[in-house]
Each structure stands twice: as structure tokens, then as C-alpha cells.
Amino acid sequence: MTESHPPASVETVEEVVRRQLSQALGGRRGMIEAAVPTIVFTVLWLTTRELQLALSVSVGAALVLLAVRLVQRSSIQFVVNALVGIGIGWFFVQRSAAAGGSADDQALAYFLPGILYNSAYTVVLAFTCLIGWPMVGFMVGSVTGDATAWHRDKQVVRLCSLLTWMLVLPCLLRVLVQAPVWLAGSSGSMDADTAVAVLGIMKIALGWPLQLAALGAMVWLLARNHTPMEPAAAQE
């Protein structure tokens, strides 16, 4: 492909990816809604040391956000995702309590699902890049109507690989930073209170702010290129 600036009527790969990423991440509002329950939990735990109170209020905050979405008749996907995340965290807390874990052990258990999730996300996305089928490419395929046609264009594959690696980096950074602290707190090599405080602060700092930074880098990259979208038949 030699065209660097396609006509306005031709949709570019960059336009498609920008739109799909915005939908997938929920925009700024969706990311803030995902962060609010964690912020509430962390602040309450650090200030009150009441685990059940922190969990209950974080759930309440998510439910308020859900109610607002329902009243506005807008998508509830991202609030529901936050509630599911809290529910999984609560499950891990209850498992820790059933095993006789202390309040600190239970608080540490709340952060474990996020570390496991980011680890799995990192492995899966990196694997798709390493085998030459980057996940972002399927965003393009969902628009063109052919899930794999984009793979015939090396330029598109290269762009999608770079964008997918940009999605990997925030997840990898969270694991590299949070996992050692969680392990140190669980093993006793770090004071459990300190570990919980550090994990809570890092979860907020490495949450939506880091995601926004990654998204900003992706938008900057997408703004620099204009890869024309072509129908599957033209690529064959």
C-alpha cells in the first residue's frame, strides 16, 4: 500500500481502532467508574481498618454509579465490570477468612485477583503478538466483517502488533510492581499493614491513570498514520 493520505470517504485502520478502543475501554467515564470502587475501598481500609465496611461501601458506590447509568439509559457494562471485580475480590476475602486468615491476610487477598488478572492478560496478549495474530487486529476484523482478512496486510499486522504491545505494557508493569509487594506481605517479610497500604496506593496509581497514559500513547501513534481500510476482496 503506497497511499499515505486516503480520501475522506475511505475509513482508515487507525479510525477503526480508535473507535473500537474507545468502546472497549468505556472512554474516560468508563475508566473512572471502574476506579471509584477501588479508591473507596482503599481509602476506607487505610483510615478505618474495617474490612467489611470498606467492601460494603465500595459495593454501594458501584451500585450508585449503576443507578445513574440506568436512569440515563446508557451502557452499564463498565459499572457491571467493576461490580464483578469487587465480587471476585470479596470471594477471595471470604476464602481467606474461612482459612483462618487475619484481617491483614483478608485485605491482601482482596488484591490478589487483580494481580492474577493482569498476569493472564499480559500472557495472552503477548502470545497473540508473538504468533503474529495480535489481538487488536480482531478489532479491525469485527468492523470489516472478516475476522482474519486484516492479517493478509503486513502493514496492518505491524500496526496492530504495536498497539497490542501498548496494551500489554500497563498490565505487565502492574504485575512487576504489585506482585513482589503482595508476596512480601503474605510471607511476612514486609509488614502486612504496610503491604496493604502500598498495594492500595499502587492499585489506584497504576489503574486508570496508567491506562489513560497508554491510551494517549496509542492515540498519538494512530494520529500519525493513515492505513487505508480495504475490503477483503481487494486484499486477496
Please describe the topology of this protein.
Elements: H1 13-25, H2 27-48, H3 51-72, H4 77-98, H5 103-130, H6 135-144, H7 154-187, H8 192-205, H9 208-224, H10 232-235
Helix pairs in contact: 1-2, 1-6, 1-9, 2-3, 2-4, 2-8, 3-4, 4-5, 5-7, 5-8, 7-8, 7-9
Features of the shown structure:
mainly alpha; 236 residues; 79% helix; disordered N terminus; disordered C terminus
Describe the protein in words.
- The chain is mainly α and 236 residues long.
- The chain has one domain (13-231).
- The protein has ten helices and no strands.
- The chain has helices at residues 13-25, 27-48, 51-72, 77-98, 103-130, 135-144, 154-187, 192-205, 208-224, 232-235.
- Helix 4 (77-98) crosses helix 5 (103-130) and helix 7 runs antiparallel to helix 8.
- The chain is globular.
What's the average pLDDT? 80
Structural class by secondary-structure content = mainly alpha
Into which percentage range does the β-strand content fall? Answer: under 5%
Query: How would you describe the shape?
Result: globular
Helices and strands, in N-to-C order? HHHHHHHHHH
- The percent range for helix content is over 70%
Helix count, DSSP H or I runs of 4 or more residues: 10
Major β-sheet profile: none
Question: How many beta-strand runs?
Answer: 0
Domain module count: 1
Uncertain runs are 1-10, 232-236
Radius of gyration of CA atoms, rounded to a whole number: 21 Å
The end-to-end span amounts to: 13 Å
